[in-house]
Predict the 3D structure of the following.
Amino acid sequence: MKIMEVSEQFGLSSDTLRYYERVGLIPPVNRNGSGMRDYNELDLRRVEFIKCMRSAGLPVEVLIEYVGLVQQGDQITEARKEILIEQRGLLIARMKEMQNTLDILNHKIEVYENAVLRKEKEIVQAEDQALEIS
Amino acid sequence: MKIMEVSEQFGLSSDTLRYYERVGLIPPVNRNGSGMRDYNELDLRRVEFIKCMRSAGLPVEVLIEYVGLVQQGDQITEARKEILIEQRGLLIARMKEMQNTLDILNHKIEVYENAVLRKEKEIVQAEDQALEIS
DNA sequence: CCTTGACTTGGAGTCGACTCCAAGTGTTAT
DNA sequence: ATAACACTTGGAGTCGACTCCAAGTCAAGG
């Protein structure tokens, strides 16, 4: 699979895909006869994983470390697990902050909506008064 | 309240507080006789609001626009509401991505833990075999 | 054969959000 | 009253994460 197709499939620019490979977020992708990247299934799964982790804000640097450990083989799964656990903690913390902000946003939006309702009520009242109904 | 105290209270550097004021995230803070910032209650609430929004990733640029509209008075609450609603949508989307990543992290961590358990079981089995128990 | 267009590289540039710096002023403690 | 230290300003520098560029290679269509 060519870089452009991968780019389209995941919504990452080919520049980004090459950048990820350059810095070690993705191990070197195999090339076809003329030196062009040819992504296989495993590469695609790696891209997807990185895209997912990055979309949640895990730092490139940390992911490089993790991917490096994965390449080292199956001896050091403990270190890999530690990284994931630490990042999970940070992620949960960020999500809590975001939930808090979301609550406040919801509250503010509600206040704006109530303000509009009040204003509409006032207008109706004013109209009623003009018609001497109330 | 002096900038240093505000900095400590909110965990934002004084540089950041001055930066927020400079770019318009916070309206100009009153100064004491010798030209130094003296934050009042309202200023503190503004700082807290911005800190909260920023902690959830709302862009500085958007917040500048929102704060600008707030300064314009109570005519244009609709535009302000729109901004909040849009940002809430983006926030919810980010949180969903993060939840997805969190699920995957949890799954991977579980796999690592099971791997450790399996390895321990193998060791026990090996010991049993050595002792010719099984 | 020649153009068009995707690919390659290394390196430079950009962007958002701070963060730091130099040079100067003000305040407090010894 | 002099040192030590928080504050001021405008502007420059940094950092993370891309994003773009120039110069060159390769495959396919007219």
